[in-house]
Amino acid sequence: MVIMTWFEILDGQINPDWRTKDWPMMSTTAIPVLLAVIYIIFVKFVGPNYMANKKPYTLRTALAIYNTGQILACIYLTVEYFKTKPKMGCDPLDVSDDPTALYAAKLVWWTTILKLSEFIETVFFVLRKKQNQVSALHIYHHITTFFLIWIASRINPGGIVRIPVMLNNMVHMVMYSYYLLSSMGPGIQNKINSYKKYITIIQMIFKLMEVTKEFFEKLDAFVDQYGDPRTNEWPMVQGITTTLACASVYLYVVLYLGPKFMENRKPFHLLPIIKILISGWTTKYTLGCEPVDSNAPHSIRLAKLFWWTYMLKLVEFAETAFFILRKKTKQVSGLHVYHHASTFILAWAAVKFFPGGMASFPILVNSVVHIIMYAYYQLSSMGPKYHQFTLKYKKYVTIIQLIQFGILVLHTLQVLSSSCSMPNAYLYGMLPDIIVLFYLFYKFYKNTYITKKKM
User: Mind telling me which residue stretches traverse the membrane in this protein (predicted)?
Assistant: First the structure.
């Protein structure tokens, strides 16, 4: 009675989906708990005691039928899940009686039945006296997977659940195919034993994919709740996953893949690319504190210019690719890589959270500096004659960048004023990056133009 009362309380804490709550096994938490307890008692106590003085069963035919059934069930469910059009990103549950949503709920329920049938796998191990296979990992995996799918069937039968279930089914297709081949006799088993570790590796990869997907979905949702509603749904602005993925690919290419690719190749001769950044900073703003005004007539135009600036910072990754393809790897310094990656992420933060106001001033200043910088690059790439001419002005490009950072520090510090209504988050995001960049550029300037000159 006490146990049943406890289950009634637990059931009351779980709000079931109205479509599945009356389906078989879904009415109460007591059912999956009872099934899990029976499973544990049999595989750890009753089964081993029963087999203690008996020879192991072969069960070759039963294993072949079971493994084939599992493979076919996983294939069928995966194909049917695809038909419900699951999304890789945030995929909220459709609780309506729409036929596709209802079918997705049925598929999740059938997956629960499939996970229950997987308890038979452990029974086969016990009857074949393969007790070393019935490890704590094995039992924990079967019970927790069954419980998680049961919970999904009861409260979230569809939506975001579908992708992890599909990944799990794909892993099980491979796993039960391996089991099926292993059950065909020692000859085949010896041939495929070397592939056994890859089954575990595949499971680890897919589990990592599930955890990673869940983490970034939560991170995207967290970021979106603080984003500007005008820009939240724009391409590459929704969430932060895309931005971090682009920055990660950039780092991987410029720090490893690019140099590896060019290791035994001659430098490419590439035509120079002129990039001109138009900031769109208008006379609507002053040099003082300017909060983001979402209601101003020009605000949406400025927000779009922020987005284009973000896209331009993505294009600027190509600059590093050109250095690598020309085997100018000394140019791909820590300063260079950090500058491009951090600026790209800050450009995303600007369009996501502060697409306007005083956040437009750094874009204006950075635009002017980049016009000068890329003009210098253009002249330098026009041949030895122009290159020699521009060399004496090279240090001034760095000086201009240092001046830029000094101006931006002073401008950003206005947020600390009690009369400034710009959020402090703007200061916390901008100021550390500016200080780091100033330090790195100053260190470069000192080592290149002061220390070498003294030597």
Answer: 25-45, 57-79, 134-153, 159-178, 236-258, 337-354, 360-376, 396-413, 425-445
